[in-house]
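User: I'm new to structure prediction. If I give you an amino acid sequence, what do you actually give back? Let's try with this one:
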Amino acid sequence: MAVPNLRYINRNVPIVEVARALDLRIGDNGNLHCWRPHLHQNGDRTASVGVRKKNNTVKCFGCHIGPIGPVDLTMQVLGLKSVGKAALWIAERFDVPIVPAGKHLVQPERRICAVGFESYLGLLIRSGLWVLLSAAAKSLVPVLLEMAEPNPGTQTLSLTISYLGLARYSGTTSPKAISKALGELQEIGWLKKKTGARAPGSGPVRTASTYLLTPRSNEIVELAHANFAQTRDEIENERTLRAEERAQRKRLAITK
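Assistant: Good question. You get back a string of structure tokens that encode the predicted 3D arrangement of the chain. For your 256 residues, that looks like this:
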């Protein structure tokens, strides 16, 4: 029995494509229709399963399951009890590499600290969310944190800055790359752009906008813990699959 790379599946096999393979319907709003309509008041007539492309997960805002990745989604929809069966189901339909025999699986070094004891940047790094960000987003995060002012009594920060300023301090000079990076941070709940808060300027690049940084929002903390747990579980599950593979080889050797 080959061991599919669970980490590759969860990070690189688009969850929307897995959903299509599972015959889940995609709503006009871009969300998925929940596979548990009986838990929704209206049978999930309006698709309520949001897709987070940045970390390749889905979450149902009706029955509150998630965030979950492609392997867990497959287990949920097909009613599978085995991670291995779900991974193999995906590997039969998508191009998934096999974990090389003897490859050392490294367990995450530590748990995410309790909220309030982890730095804003540390939460992203230690949870594994940092590696999912683009180079442009990584260049913006420390600049935004350094330049922003704390909002008293909250765990949020605010700053007003233009694309030109972000380019100057981050080294990311492309307005398109900056816009995409800000969108990434908004998608994971790390940042919000305040509407109607523009300072005078001479164009979209020089015009300053006001941003609210929410590096400790419920959404980002949930994602951080879910991503860390997913990485830990992937390693444990791959170890289990390897053990099953070795046991199967021994049984076959005995019967020959």
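You can read the tokens as a compact description of the fold. Here is one thing that stands out. The first strand starts at residue 49 and ends at 52.
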